[in-house]
Design goal:
InterPro entries: Lectin_gal-bd_dom (IPR000922), Lectin_gal-bd_sf (IPR043159). By secondary structure, this protein is mostly beta strands. About 5% of the residues lie in helices and about 30% in strands. It has a single domain, classed as Rhamnose-binding lectin domain (RBL) (Jelly Rolls). A 3-stranded antiparallel beta sheet has the order 1-5-3, with helices on one face. A two-stranded antiparallel sheet has the order 2-4.
Length: about 120
């Protein structure tokens, strides 16, 4: 960084710490180009030195589009009951994780005939 004029002793640097991560991926989304897998996946990652300590919300089905606010229910009319277990098993205690968005991962299709998404809100600590 360079300071033109002013008093260099008066400069301050602010930092931030990310404590929550969010991802929502539709089953018809194109998989990441960095992935070797054929299916789209929810990918969560905490900043360096932190790991996933809690899953605040997880739903495979048709959850509310933007579910980052924990003050309201985000479950839609379709929800796989195994979602929380699957996500916790894949992510808790890890810095990063990926969960494929496909019915087999959640014990089958919870609501045939509708397009599904996986939405997850996690805490980093």
């Amino acid at each position: 960084m360079e300071e033109m004029g002013g008093d260099p002793l008066q400069i301050s640097v602010n930092t931030m710490s990310v404590t929550r991560v969010y991802s929502s991926v539709n089953e018809l989304s194109t998989p990441s180009l960095l992935s070797r897998r054929k299916h789209p996946a929810v990918r969560l990652r905490c900043q360096q030195g932190k790991h996933i300590t809690d899953i605040e919300f997880a739903s495979y089905g048709n959850p509310v589009e933007d579910c980052r606010s924990s003050s309201r229910s985000c479950l839609g009319s379709c929800h796989a009951e195994t979602t929380e277990f699957v996500v916790k098993d894949a992510c808790l205690g890890r810095r990063k994780c990926a969960i494929p968005v496909r019915p087999a991962k959640f014990g089958g299709d919870p609501c045939p005939g509708i397009q599904k998404s996986l939405s997850v809100v996690a805490s980093c600590g």
